[in-house]
From TrEMBL:
Region span, Disordered: 23-43
Keywords annotated in UniProt: Signal
Protein's UniProt name: DUF4352 domain-containing protein
Signal peptide: 1-21
Upper lineage: Bacteria, Bacillati, Actinomycetota, Actinomycetes, Kitasatosporales
Compositional bias segments (type: Low complexity): 27-43
Domain of life the protein comes from: Bacteria
Length: 188
């Protein structure tokens, strides 16, 4: 096995990565992913991270670092006072959650739910819901939080998804990422 290093800017960890404009220069951070299968075993098929497999992110501009991972995915089965269909004027949509965990290992990092998206085999991408209700699954992942070295933040981010389809992967991306980190969503 080998360790693959990838240039990665952590939108989860930097507030400007949530789509807000900033006068600060854009910089890339580095990340190291856990070992992946040898590329020669399936050269045309991309390999994705498994739930619980963390990426280590170093942000040199802030002299900070963190580990981040996806812990799980659940689709449907939530009883909420407002359905995904009611909220977004759709038919056949349900709420789904992605459980995320970020631990600061150096300095202070900022977290955000907006660099996370669900990717489907047909190319569809779904962003997290901008709404939140008191009856959404707990704990909720924060919209914006500061996490100091030695502390972690963990919670569920809610997505409105088509009830008859399942995403292929959970993608951690931002405008600054040259290569997104991707976790495979198991079939049920």
């Amino acid at each position: 096995m080998r360790t693959q290093s990838t240039a990665i800017a952590v939108g989860l960890l930097l507030l400007p990565l949530t789509g807000c404009s900033s006068d600060e220069p854009k910089t890339a951070a580095s990340a190291t992913t856990a070992p992946r299968a040898d590329a020669s075993s399936a050269p045309s098929a991309p390999k994705y991270l498994a739930f619980g497999q963390a990426i280590e992110v170093n942000i040199p501009t802030d002299n900070s670092a963190a580990k981040t991972t996806v812990l799980g995915y659940q689709q449907g089965g939530y009883t909420t006072r407002t359905s995904a269909d009611q909220e977004f004027n759709t038919k056949g949509y349900v709420w789904a959650t992605v459980e995320i965990k970020v631990c600061a290992t150096k300095g202070t990092v900022r977290t955000s739910r907006y660099p996370w998206v669900l990717a489907y085999a047909d190319g569809t991408r779904i962003e997290p819901s901008g709404v939140t209700y008191g009856d959404f699954p707990k704990p909720e992942y924060p919209y914006d939080a500061k996490v100091k070295a030695g502390d972690c933040v963990r919670g569920k981010t809610v997505f409105p998804v088509p009830g008859n389809q399942r995403p292929e992967r959970i993608v951690y991306t931002t405008e600054l990422l040259p290569t997104p980190a991707e976790w495979a969503v198991p079939a049920k």
